[in-house]
Structures are given as structure tokens and as C-alpha cells.
Amino acid sequence: MKKKIAIIIVATVLVVFFIFIILPKEEEEKASESFARCLTEKGAKMYGTEWCSHCKAQKEKFGESFEFIDYIDCDMNKDMCNVEKISGYPTWKIMGQSFPGGKTLEELSELSGCTL
């Protein structure tokens, strides 16, 4: 009898873990992908470099959805970054305006009009 109760308790804990930890993360990733796509559709660009720790932190906020962000590596595209007057990393260009420094997803949402 005690063994059955222990199995039921473990099963319940696993189900609760799945419902409250795993499922929300999957939904969050979907929202991030949609948000990243919206930024790109609105013409938002992130300028940075691979060696920049702030750029790395900015990329991590998107997780796997960063692949949908229009990212310009200024080490590989120096002329483009000079034309755009990029002087620090990361810098976001949204609707023709420059926004230097890392941004929260909420800030990017406000600047772009894209919903999280």
C-alpha cells in the first residue's frame, strides 16, 4: 500500500512539474520566435560583434529565436556599420533611430510596436 502511495505522489509531482515548468517554456519560445520575426518585419536590426559580451547577453534573451533577428556583425561588415554610425555594441536600429546598449525584450517591444 505504501508503495502505491509513493508512486502516486511521484507521478503527481512529475505531472505538476511538466504543467508548470515545461509547457510554459515551450509557449515562451513560441512567443520569442513570433516577437523576433516581428522585429525583423519592422526593419529592426541589431549591430554587434562576436567578441562583445553585451551582444552575447542580448542574443541570449532571444534564445534560439535569435536566428530570426536581422543581425549585422560589425567586424564582418565594417563599412555598413560606419555608414550607420554605429559606435558601440550592441546598437539597435529601429524605424531609422539608433538605440545603443542592450535592451530588455520589453524595451524592444515598446520601441518597435511588436508584442511579446
How confident overall, as mean pLDDT?
84
First and last CA, distance: 48 Å
What is the total tally of β strands? 4
Element-by-element helix/strand order = HEHEHEEH
Which strands sit side by side, in order, in the main sheet?
Answer: 2-1-3-4
The largest β sheet comes out as: 4 strands, mixed
β-strand amount? 5-15%
Shape: elongated
Q: How does the helix and strand content classify structurally?
A: alpha+beta
Helix fraction bin: 40-55%
Low-confidence spans: 14-19, 21-31
Number of helices: 4
Using only C-alpha atoms, the radius of gyration works out to 20 Å
Describe the structure.
The chain is of the alpha+beta class and 116 residues long. The chain is built from four helices and four strands; from the N terminus they run αβαβαββα. It has a four-stranded mixed β-sheet with strand order 2-1-3-4, with no helix packed on it. β1, α2 and β2 form a beta-alpha-beta unit. It is elongated and about 75 Å long. The N and C termini lie far apart (48 Å). About 15% of the residues have low confidence.
List the helices and strands and how they pair.
Blueprint: H1 2-41, E1 45-48, H2 53-60, E2 70-73, H3 78-83, E3 91-94, E4 97-100, H4 105-112
Parallel strand pairs: 1-2
Antiparallel strand pairs: 1-3, 3-4
Could you provide a short overview of the structure?
The protein contains four helices and four strands, in the order H-E-H-E-H-E-E-H. It is an alpha+beta fold. It is elongated.
What distinguishing features does this structure have?
116 residues, alpha+beta, four-stranded mixed β-sheet, 4 helices, 4 strands, 53% helix, 14% strand, elongated
